[in-house]
């Protein structure tokens, strides 16, 4: 049987959505305990009063849900304006042309099915029907490739430090920029209406999204991105071992195909203890601290790795990692890509393991 998609409008429907949210965020992900009603097993937030809901139901049980807050319904909450840095966009566009999507989740048994994409298509249908120009959201670094592949772009010079979730990247989608969606081969392009000459794309879009703290192949000229990364690794190799030592450019390139360079501000918590993401990062510049509560366990500088414990042991993050110096930047590697390369090429895997061992040993004696 296929789950049916419905809009949550009645009190009973909303309560069922809040229970589903509790099951995912509180019971499964161990988050948001402080704002949840544990007796009734529901997770309700202030912005729910301003928002609309979409949910998936099968045999009377909610198996997927999401929330969106639309400027055409009411004013955005202060939290939305601050978190997504909406004010510059609101200064240029009517609120009814902006929307924020959050709490997009499906139950474990339905992950890997088409349910997520079906829900997202319904969301895009709503955006088409209401001529919404900008769709805002955010994601953790390990999900950035997936969202960029859908057509989302990074736009802010600072990222979000969420107490509960960890490090988040602000994102925006421009539904009527069909040319961009076709260029990156977004799988959701067929769900977007092509308004052709009547399309609405903000005239000053490039100015609004130019100061991104994230750089990727999709968001930069391809040759500039590669040149910048290769130069960064040459700089690392002058003073210490590097993850890609003794690997040719043709071998390194696939590892970097879905990578992202993230510029961090002082105080950014790049890794949150307990998070389940397992991607690795390479420090390109600056300095970070590994902490367990207030205790500093280690300092990380150019060339060092972070996240390797979760990657190799397949466990949640074992410590928090904070940026502590101006000019700190890290390279986020795609977990899927790295694992695939290691599985498919034993020689590459052996050289990478040797390089990682050298990095860790150098750290111990340094």
Rg computed from alpha carbons, rounded to a whole number of angstroms: 21 Å
Mean pLDDT: 90
User: Do you know the CATH architecture of the largest domain?
Assistant: 3-Layer(aba) Sandwich
CATH topology of the largest domain: Aminopeptidase
- The helix content is 25-40%
Beta-strand residue fraction: 25-35%
The total strand number stands at 19
Task: Please indicate the count of domains.
Answer: 2
Overall geometry: globular
The main sheet comes to: 8 strands, mixed
Counting DSSP H or I runs of 4 or more residues, the number of helices is 12
Distance between the termini: 59 Å
Secondary-structure-derived class: alpha+beta
Provide the CATH top-level class of the largest domain.
Alpha Beta
Oligomer description: single chain
Q: Could you give me the name of the CATH homologous superfamily of the largest domain?
A: Gcn5-related N-acetyltransferase (GNAT)
Spans of at least 5 consecutive residues whose pLDDT stays below 50 are: none
């Amino acid at each position: 049987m296929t789950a049916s998609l419905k809009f949550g409008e009645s009190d009973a429907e909303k309560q069922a959505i809040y229970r589903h949210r509790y099951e995912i965020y509180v019971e499964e992900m161990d988050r948001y305990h402080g704002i949840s009603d544990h007796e009734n097993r529901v997770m309700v937030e202030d912005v729910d009063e301003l928002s609309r809901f979409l949910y998936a139901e099968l045999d009377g049980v909610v198996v997927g849900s999401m929330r969106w807050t639309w400027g055409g319904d009411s004013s955005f909450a202060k939290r939305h304006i601050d978190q997504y840095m909406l004010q510059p966009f609101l200064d240029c566009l009517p609120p009814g042309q902006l929307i924020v999507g959050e709490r997009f989740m499906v139950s474990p048994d339905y992950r890997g099915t088409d349910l997520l994409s079906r829900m997202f298509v319904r969301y895009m249908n709503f955006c088409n029907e209401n001529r919404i120009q900008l769709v805002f959201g955010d994601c953790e670094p390990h999900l950035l490739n997936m969202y960029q592949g859908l057509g989302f772009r990074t736009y802010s010079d600072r990222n979000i430090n969420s107490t509960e979730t960890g490090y988040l990247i602000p994102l925006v989608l421009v539904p009527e920029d069909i040319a961009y969606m076709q260029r990156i081969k977004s799988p959701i392009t067929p769900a977007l209406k092509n308004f052709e000459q009547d399309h609405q794309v903000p005239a000053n879009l490039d100015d609004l999204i130019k100061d991104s703290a994230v750089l990727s192949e999709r968001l930069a000229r391809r040759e500039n991105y590669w040149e910048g990364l290769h130069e960064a690794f040459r700089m690392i190799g002058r003073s210490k071992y590097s993850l890609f030592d003794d690997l040719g450019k043709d071998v390194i390139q696939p590892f970097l195909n879905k990578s992202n360079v993230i510029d961090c501000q002082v105080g950014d918590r790049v890794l949150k203890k307990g998070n389940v993401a397992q991607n690795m990062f390479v420090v390109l510049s600056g300095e970070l601290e590994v902490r367990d509560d207030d205790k500093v366990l280690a300092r990380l500088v150019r060339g060092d790795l972070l996240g390797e414990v979760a990657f190799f042991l397949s466990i949640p993050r074992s410590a928090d990692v904070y940026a502590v110096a101006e000019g700190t930047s890290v390279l986020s590697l795609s977990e899927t890509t790295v694992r695939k390369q290691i599985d498919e090429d034993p020689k590459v895997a052996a050289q990478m393991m040797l390089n990682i061992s050298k990095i860790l040993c150098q750290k111990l004696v340094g």
